[in-house]
Amino acid sequence: MKSLSNTLNDIEKMLKDDFNIFMTSDSLENFTETVEYYSPEGDWEKFLEIPRKLNIKIIYVFYLTGDDLNLRKYKNNIGLIELGFYYNNVMHIFKITTEWYDEYDSFSHEEDEKNID
Questions:
Q1: What is the pLDDT of residue 113?
Q2: How many domains, in total, are found in the chain?
Q3: 10-residue mean pLDDT series, the chain (117 residues)
C-alpha cells in the first residue's frame, strides 16, 4: 500500500491540471453548516470525478502530519488527508487516514470526553 505522502503527491499532480487547490488548516465550519463525509474505503480518484462532472473548479485539500500533532514518533509522516468541494450548500469531504492517526484521534476524543465530565 502506498504511503499517504505518495498518495498526496499523486492527488496534487492530478488536481493541478483541472482544479484550483485550496489548502488550509482552518476549520471547515467557515465553509458551511453541512459537511458530508465519504467512506475511507472509497477511491479518491472516483471522488474527484464528482466535482469534475459538476464543473467545480476549487478543491479543498487538507492534511496533518505527526509534526502538526506534536507526535515525534510520526515526524514528517502524513496521517490524514481530506479532499473536498462545496456544492449546494454542502461541503463534501473524502477522508483518508493511517492506522496511527486513527489511534491518535480515538485517544484524543476519549481525553476530550473525560475533560467534559
A1: 59
A2: 1
A3: 80 77 54 62 84 89 89 90 88 90 82 60
d(CA 104, CA 69): 9
DSSP the chain: ---HHHHHHHHHHHHHHH-EEEE--S-GGGT-SEEEEEPTTS-HHHHHHHHHHTT--EEEEEEEETTTTT-GGGTT-EEEEEEEEEETTEEEEEEEE-HHHHHHHHHHHHHHHHHH-
Q: What is the pLDDT of residue 32?
A: 47
Give Cα 63 to chain centroid, integer Å: 6
Range of the domain at 69: 4-116
